[in-house]
Amino acid sequence: MKYCFILKIFFLCRYALIVLDNQNLLDLWDWEHRGNGLKINNGKLFFHFNPKLCLSKIDKLQEIAGLANYTDLEVASSSNGDKVACNITPINATVERIDSKGAVISWEAFQHYDSRILLGYVVYFIEAPYRNITMYDGRDACGGDG
């Protein structure tokens, strides 16, 4: 039993930062306003089950902190950022017509070097009587979207 305890301590000591099971975590740090002076001298990153945290945010932390590349066992691409759009490309959209039954929206076709990448478009909408909503309106503390 003592040997098993030592193995658990060794496992945890390998990591400088463990971020685990944060259902609504969207960002790690405000790099623009808080500076880039973060340095981690020893240890690795461990990120799992953070469904709204994009891998690009973890990559930025790794780069600024001066850490070595992580493996899929340390930072899981399948459980971080899997419930949010991470690689967003803005497109030009125009509202052509609005009536009581719906709206007609047109946009330029998305251009990508591999036409098989984009399988379709999803258009989300939310009623905004005062036109002052943000992408966070309608979300609750449990991660649901209105």
UniProtKB/TrEMBL annotation:
Q: Which residues form the signal peptide?
A: 1-16
For this entry, the protein name equals: Receptor L-domain domain-containing protein
The record's annotation in Gene3D superfamilies points to: Immunoglobulins, Receptor L-domain
Which residues belong to any copy of the Receptor L-domain domain?
14-60
SUPFAM superfamilies recorded: Fibronectin type III, L domain-like
Q: Which UniProt keywords apply?
A: Signal
